[in-house]
Amino acid sequence: MNIDKKQMMHWVQQIEKNSNANDHILEELIACKDQEVALYLYNIAAEARKKYYGRDVYVRGLIEISNYCKNDCYYCGIRRSNKQLKRYRLTLEEILKCCKDGYTLGFRTFVLQGGEDTFYSDEILCGLISSIKTAYSDCAVTLSLGEKSFDSYQAYFRAGADRYLLRHETANEEHYKKLHPDSMSFKKRKQCLWDLKKIGYQVGAGCMIGSPGQNTKNLVEDIRFLQKLKPSMIGVGPFLPHEDTPFHIYPKGDLTECLNMIALLRLLFPYVLLPSTTALGTLHPQGRELGIQAGANVVMPNLSPTSVRKLYALYDDKICTGEEAAECKDSLEKRIESVGYRVVTSRGDVYGFHKK
Ligand code: 5AD
Prior knowledge:
Blueprint: H1 3-18, H2 23-30, H3 35-53, E1 56-59, E2 61-66, H4 92-105, E3 109-114, H5 122-135, E4 140-144, H6 150-159, E5 163-165, H7 173-179, H8 186-199, E6 202-209, H9 216-229, E7 233-238, H10 255-268, H11 278-283, H12 287-293, E8 298-299, H13 306-309, H14 325-338, E9 342-344
Helix pairs in contact: 1-3, 2-9, 3-10, 5-6, 6-8
The chain binds 5'-deoxyadenosine (5AD).
């Protein structure tokens, strides 16, 4: 074994011990393509996860409530300017039906995700959240509905929402401007995350790996931002092009780089809830299993009605768009079990491990 490999494995051990590393070391490990070093990193990360979470993998039922969006992010298939896309919006009854089916299947977290659809007023959303919490008081409600005012976030929290996912997308302002039109603001995005924390949500941030214009230094900046924010959840997945966006010409994110990031995030944030994403499963047939083996501990099967799944297309070739909720959960469970982990149905809160 050459000295570089030995050196890198030593760095991995140090990160595991200190939950930190300098920028140079992080850059080297994020970009590392050596399979032996990478596998070592994943194994150490998987061990670190076991200290907190054993072999448990949490499931979240994802309900994609609307593909209308007022934003125009260059990477995203449901951006406002995509005129090819048929738009849909679920009714309150349809959403509650998804929760009902999900509850029967054993889900104890519902994630309401959607584009920034102005149709859903705060009043409608608060009604929806409290209906779900009343019917399923043992369940957590996670929102993933984009940027809102402090008051709106607070109203949803008071209505019973427990968690909020809002990826910061990139912690570098120049890079942010390459991914978003001028109408969107990097400062606003970050402010939203701080607002959510202040209100008391369990907050999830995160970014795409391999988005156009991103370099390894940017990913280190993402890590530094996350270290300041101290989120309960971190969602990362590969950038995947969508044919009807300005970014259709760019290549997909790299699998090894995604897995390296997942493993490093596990070592830097041992307590964190870290999903193995649908985008990772789309990038590679065993992507989600590989993510779990690199330290991820959450999966988010789709609970949306089959009729709308293909329409919630953030990127091309998204997997599981034809499956019923039950099949979707079953097939994921089998995949997770095949690599030695077990899917559990508890709410899976981060507390107990981590002070907000
Ligand atoms: N490829 C991968 N991920 C994407 N997202 C949006 N568009 C894409 C894409 N083309 C991610 C963003 C967003 C989350 C809901 O989906 O990071 O925050």
